[in-house]
Amino acid sequence: MNPFHFHTATSVQSAIAAVGMASPLPPSTTAAGNARLVAGGTNLLDLMKENVMRPATLVDINRLDLAMIEELPDGGLRLGALARNAATAYHPLVRSRYPLLSSAILAGASPQIRNMASNGGNLLQRTRCVYFYDTATPCNKREPGSGCSAVGNMARQHAILGASAHCIAVHPSDMCVALAALEAVVHVQGPDTPRTIAFSDFHRLPGDQPDLDTVLRPDELITHIDLPAPGGFASHSVYLKLRERASYAFALTSVAAALELDGEGRIGRARIALGGVAHKPWRRPEAEALLEGQAPGTDVFAAAAAQVLEGAVPQGTGLGHNGFKIPLARRAIVRALTTAAAGTVSNVRPIKMSPTPSGAAA
User: For residue 20, what pLDDT is reported?
Assistant: First the structure.
């Protein structure tokens, strides 16, 4: 058993101060001691039970006023860091304007976990790499410099893009794949001033520091996530998740696809983000640019898929080899874009679209 202190924060600044007084760890490391923020705890408590993470202090932030979901003046939406995943997925404005996000959230975990998990915590969840969870094996994410046990071994669930010799783990979130496609912005607060981080910059590739998952500083916490006005994406989007069983499983690959079509049916804007293939949600803006001005079709979608997957490298050996992920992801991208071109697919019942605010993009 690893004892720890428990502190309840009553304000953002008191939470930051409590973490600072306890000598905070970098937010993505696993070393023993020091402090961690806790909200739903759906990932952190599991890691503590498995002895993967051993914080000396837990700072409970559930009393902070960060659970709002509210409309922004430009037609976008603000998601509080402490809003629960279920509340976010079923919120009327999320369902009508961002069905891609609603579908992605509901594709993950279980109803019980979604009822507890917070939006901010979803962004910070750790990889489900089996070697990361097995404290008897070397893991650079758990113990920097110890080695990566996944390289050359069982790696069916591991990365094909953006990996390094130090780590081939993948980011586990479904929600984050949709947020990447929607070009969300993360707002964080530190001891002095707040700052904003483009979602594409929030998560890191492993490089030679795979223990750091994000660019969040040790003394910062996420306060909210902003979504830009959806434009035409609300009418042409889909989240496609391919996994080894029908529910409660992480993606072998997933695709968040959104299209905006003009009056002639051509693609004005496109967004493609992949999950289950890299250390962070994977986007290639140059692949999206290939689609602009084009009529939807299999050939142009296949060209975009090839661009998204350029440089993909299989990992593992024998039955643990994940080379199948490359053609699987290619076909998934084409299928998702084809589906999005035809309309929006959601895994909740449709509701009446909210009227577009005056001055916002239709």
Answer: 83
The percent of the chain in helix, strand and coil, each rounded to the nearest 5, is: 30, 20, 50
29, two tokens: 């490391």
How many CB atoms neighbour CB 331 within 10 A? 15
Quickly list H helices, 91-152. Answer: 92-97, 99-106, 111-116, 119-124, 130-133
Average pLDDT value for residue range 107-116: 97
Which DSSP string do the residues of 235-279 spell out, in sequence order? GSEEEEEE-SSSSS---SEEEEEEEEE-TTS-EEEEEEEEESSSS
Residue 168's CB is within 10 A of a number of other CB atoms, namely 29
Q: CA separation (Å) from 58 to 10, 37, 62, 168? A: 14, 6, 12, 29
Residue 59's CB is within 10 A of a number of other CB atoms, namely 24
At 65 the pLDDT is 98
Q: Is the pTM of this model over 0.90?
A: yes
* Backbone φ, ψ for residue 332 (5° rounding): -65, -40
- Tokens for 109? 């975990």
Look at residue 358 and tell me whether its pLDDT is greater than 80.
no
Q: Which residue has the tokens 């919120």?
A: 91
